[in-house]
Design a protein that fits this description.
2 copies of one chain form a homodimer.
Chain A: H1 3-25, E1 30-35, E2 45-55, E3 60-72, H2 77-80, E4 90-102, E5 109-120, E6 127-137, H3 143-157, H4 164-175, E7 177-178, E8 183-184, E9 188-195, H5 200-212, H6 214-225, H7 232-251, H8 254-261, H9 266-269, E10 276-278, H10 290-298
Antiparallel strand pairs in A: 1-2, 2-3, 3-4, 4-5, 5-6, 6-9, 7-8
Helix pairs in contact in A: 1-5, 1-6, 3-6
Chain lengths: ~300, ~300
């Protein structure tokens, strides 16, 4: 179980993604390295991270690609929910997490995350698991974008067994769901957690495959949509729909809750929140509009592949 | 234990507050009555509410004053957290809840809530408790406004014992606190929950006193600040600070969680969210600015009375 190898992969992945996004964008991500004070947080621990953020860019109104590697004396409850027998163990967690909020409402918001947990206790063998996935949240739906994104997700998993994609696709539909709205967050993708059965090396290889498939899944969609003209109406709908993103991340998202509970770095965790958001009361899209089509044809779990 | 009397008080309070806000504002609240389907929600139950909302008003950019009265077969966990022995009982909950987000950044956002719970089980006496309070969230701090608001809170509680105000004031400071920011939500006020010790009639009288003190606590502040001139800078800071309001309500607020968990009406619960919100990475106010003064002099628990 070589945590250094994971760390090296993740740092290189972050670099690769940031470079490609900068190439697309013409803008620059700022870099913010941070350390987590040993014993200063609750639960106490060390480690740190490297957060790359862009704000006010031409393509991305706000986005971040964050690497973090933290250690703690006690696994927080949100992390051990699926394995209560590990509660209170020491832990090490490392991953790359990204969220991109484009300015153009025709370009979807995207999220990708790959992470590895190791739970330790003196005198016992360490227990590891992997998690992650990617999912897309369009404001205006395009069939071909959804098909493309889901195909890339499938391609990432197929080398590891044909049964994984349907399982992780369904998991994503179930996970990124706003119960209080009875609405999925977006058009899904893949999601997995607590993944350890095939052994450490194979799990690590799967994590790499997911990480490596992010750019081919998303970049062609950005290239296809980022020159489309939009106006105030589309910006307004985007700001309204972004409210759902906030609701999901703050009410349900396990990664966000883990970060906030583990004394994580708030600004890095909440870089997932959109730059400009609107809420309004009991709003409904106009019948027959493109906005209504999003709800009726895209915000429904579908077999896109 | 007369639930009808509470209901009558709450409906009249809602009317009184809405009329006064309309007088101040010159705008009209829309009215949205709703019913909760018996058995349709999880946990199943009936009841309904009357939500009054204003959006795009001259004074209030978004605000709502909601009455609700719901019944359910099983008390949700968020409601029985302080009294685990009541988990799973039938319940009845009624209250008035309001949040007002003014357009002018010099006018503070305000929240008030009064509520009563009754937990029932066949063959046992019903168990009741009251909760509520009010608190204020300024964007720009004015000492005299804070003193005025806290004095009104104290006046609401003093007839019921001098020990209540310090206790409920401290409770408010502790409750409306964003752990992940290490920041209070605003300048506080009063908060109480699980209040039943003095008996039903006295608790109901206290609830009425809190409800009745809302307008005298807030209206003079609105009248004092709503004509102050502001520009883009103040609006921008207001939108940024409103992000904290969203973070608190979605991550910590027990009322919000209770509502979403009890199959409550999402639009009425989330009418507390601001109309226009901004997030940005690791932003700090300029040293010596009015924005920095808010953090240094107002967003600190203080003895304002």
């Amino acid at each position: 179980m070589n945590v250094d190898a994971i760390s090296a992969y993740l740092c290189a992945l972050q670099d690769r993604i940031v470079s490609e996004l900068e190439r697309l964008n013409g803008g620059r991500f700022r870099r913010d390295r941070w350390e987590r004070a040993e014993g200063g947080a609750s639960p106490p621990g060390g480690g740190g991270g490297d957060t790359r953020v862009i704000e006010g860019g031409g393509l991305f109104e706000r986005g971040g690609v964050a690497f973090s590697h933290v250690r703690g004396a006690r696994l927080p409850p949100s992390a051990s929910a699926v394995r209560p027998e590990l509660a209170g163990r020491g832990f090490e967690a490392l991953g790359v997490s990204l969220v991109l909020h484009p300015r153009n409402p025709y370009v979807p918001t995207v999220h990708m995350n790959v992470r590895c947990f190791v739970a330790t206790r003196e005198g016992e063998a360490p227990v590891f698991w992997f998690g992650g996935g990617m999912d897309m949240t369009p404001y205006y739906g395009f069939e071909e974008d959804c098909v493309h994104f889901h195909r890339a997700c499938k391609a990432a998993l197929d080398p590891f067994g044909a049964e994984l994609h349907p399982r992780f696709k369904r998991w994503c539909d179930e996970y990124f769901f706003l119960k209080h709205r009875n609405e999925p967050r977006g058009i899904g993708g893949i999601f997995f957690d607590d993944f350890h059965e095939p052994g450490f090396e194979r799990c690590f290889a799967l994590m790499q495959s997911v990480g490596d498939h992010f750019l081919p899944a998303y970049v062609p969609i950005v290239e296809r949509r980022s020159a489309l003209a939009y106006g105030e109406r589309e910006r307004d709908f985007q700001a309204y729909r972004r409210g759902r993103y906030v609701e999901f991340n703050l009410v349900y998202d396990r990664g966000t809750l883990f970060g906030l509970q583990s004394g994580g770095r708030t600004e890095s965790i909440l870089m997932s929140l959109p730059p400009l958001v609107k809420w309004r009361y009991d709003w409904k899209p106009e019948p027959g509009s493109a906005e209504e089509r999003l709800y009726q044809e895209f915000l429904r779990p579908r077999d896109w592949v």
